Amino acid sequence: MRRRQIAEAMWRVTVARSLEGTSMRHVAAEAGVSVGMMQHYFRTKDEMLLFALDSMTEQVSRRIGERFAELADPDDPKHQVRAALVETLPLDEERRLEAFVGCAFLTRAAVDTRFADYLRDGHRQGHAYLVEQINRGGRPCDAAEEAHVLLALVNGFTLGVLAGQCTAQQALAAVEARLDALFGP
Amino acid sequence: MRRRQIAEAMWRVTVARSLEGTSMRHVAAEAGVSVGMMQHYFRTKDEMLLFALDSMTEQVSRRIGERFAELADPDDPKHQVRAALVETLPLDEERRLEAFVGCAFLTRAAVDTRFADYLRDGHRQGHAYLVEQINRGGRPCDAAEEAHVLLALVNGFTLGVLAGQCTAQQALAAVEARLDALFGP
DNA sequence: ACTGTTCCAATACGTCTGTATCGTACTGAA
DNA sequence: TTCAGTACGATACAGACGTATTGGAACAGT
Questions:
Q1: Is the CB of A39 less than 7 A from some atom of nucleic acid strand C?
Q2: Nearest nt (C1') from A41 Cα
Q3: In b/e form, how buried is each residue of B44-53, taking b as 16+ CB within 10 angstroms?
Q4: Element of type H or E holding A182
């Protein structure tokens, strides 16, 4: 699919030049296509950006589903949550790219309500899922608040790792420590 | 000071239009001055951006110092840390503006090493300060790791509040819960 | 009074942006 | 074979961008 090919080029350009440096011409050059072709598949730049974001969240959630299927006990809440959260941390080069693009869109969301709405939806779903799992297998606590803490922790550490302020291993250790506190060791 | 006046205009423009929308002409219009005058005080745009960032971090740390002076027990580590962290959360409109501008620069740092170096320095100082306070008044723990957790928590919740994913009160409650866990209630 | 410097406004220049437009292959149906 | 529609490439266009240039007040030093 051409749209997907363009979206992946957009990710790479965003990593190299950040969102503000991501122009139509740069994406087209990175994808090895003409600007005219991009206009054929995306009527406007925003349409392309939103597709690139959507395409990426889809890729991440598909991968999380794969991890779920690989679990020894697919119904264990702690291992499910662990698999889901770890899959979003920038632990290798591929996930680092995804995290970077995600952060770029997140800051964009602070200004542009269209992106904010999209990300808010995703956040809500993630939060609801975490609440469900915490209630199912966690120690007694305020599941809604703990879910927010988990998400903030993952986002904060992702940012920290990307900015070179701490290592991915530190992030992983902190998230796992929090999971131990929630679900038991 | 003219430079300060321009910097404050730059903050407002960044909040309204994000960093990519922050042009010389817009900042000049917001500050009520001519582009030529801005060029007189800042030879290039990057010079202006770096001054605006520096000026803002200075403002925040000055305000943190004021909070320290207002503490009943200025030497209590927990209340000091609490004051410092709370002062960076987007709890009111002024701090929301600062947090917003900080996030904008954070994405810039992903591409431009000058901004990355500046922010990394600030993070290192904040981390060192937290480690010191945790060691001084906290329960026995890995102070370095706990400091990273605190910073990630503040950053993650700041982002979440700005993107409309959770409320400032939730962020505050989570940070205070973490402080209770670290220092005792 | 002359001169140099600082402060600032106006404007011009070249580049980059998103997008509109035009032209041209190719495809499948009638 | 004709024709409509799709899938592009090439180019044009208007505007915004950062910055260089120019020129003129205001002021200081001599």
A1: yes
A2: D7
A3: eeeebbbbbb
A4: helix A168-183
The answer to whether residue A25 is domain-embedded is no
> How far is B94 from B110, CA to CA, in rounded Å?
25
Q: Do B166 and A153 touch (CB under 8 A)?
A: no
> Shortest Cα distance from B165 to chain A (angstroms)?
6
Size of interface A-B (CB pairs under 8 A): 131
Q: How many domains does chain B have?
A: 1
CB atoms within 10 A of CB A37: 13
Q: Measured on CA atoms in the order A46, A100, B155, B128, is the torsion positive or negative?
A: negative
> Does A117 fall in a domain?
yes
Convert the pLDDT of each residue in B98-148 to its tens digit. 999 998 898 888 788 899 999 999 999 999 999 999 999 878 999 999 999
Distances from the Cα of A95 to the Cα of A92, A177, B75, B137, angstroms: 6, 21, 43, 37
**Partner-chain contact B148 A160, CB within 8 Å:** yes
What is the CA B23 to C1' D16 distance in angstroms? 9
Residues 6+ apart with CB under 8 A from A66: none
| A-chain residues near B165 (CB < 8 A) | 119-120, 123-124, 127, 151
Count the Cβ atoms, other than its own, within 10 Å of residue A42: 22
pLDDT of residue A154 exceeding 80, the answer is yes
Round the average pLDDT of chain A to a whole number and report it.
94
* Spatial distance between the Cα atoms of B159 and A162, rounded to a whole number of angstroms: 15
Tell me if A113 is assigned to some domain: yes
Does A19 map to a domain?
A: no
Enter the tokens of residue A90.
């920038």
CA B61 to CA B79: how far, in whole Å? 16
Please tell me the distance from the alpha carbon of residue A28 to that of residue A143, in angstroms, as a whole number. 45
Given pLDDT bands bounded at 50, 70 and 90, which one contains residue A114? confident
Range of the domain at B83: 55-183
Which residue has the least CA–C1' distance to nucleotide D16? B23
> Where residue A109 sits, what CATH number does that domain have?
1.10.357.10
